[in-house]
Amino acid sequence: MADTDNKKRPNPTDMHVGSRIRLRRNMLGMSQEKLGESLGITFQQIQKYEKGTNRVGASRLQAIANIMNVPVAFFFEGAPGEENRPVGFSEDSSTNFAIEFCTSMEGLQLNRAFVRIADPKVRRRTIDLVKALADEVDAS
Known about the structure:
Blueprint: H1 2-8, H2 12-27, H3 32-39, H4 43-51, H5 58-68, H6 96-102, H7 105-115, H8 120-139
């Protein structure tokens, strides 16, 4: 019975790869329909990939990487089992919170809006405003 239950749950690596596909697609402002069209598949198939319900084959993942202009390795960054690998010069665990925020929907929206601000003074004031708002919440 446990084997049957296990087969219904997506593999954690497949879920991670799918979430990275969704992340990159959202970063590019690309719809599931557009990605599916580029690959010659339905948006429902893209949904299944993104949820980890269906595993992405190697050639399909390469095609997705090409369309999204990232190396295939992008989809495996931070995958389950990667936590115990030596860090070296890459991000350490203290930067994980920033990466998690930047990959959240709010982080993506904030980043997209922020980079459209051309004036450096307005950018600086925006940062100051966000810091002041955060300090106000901390003081409450």
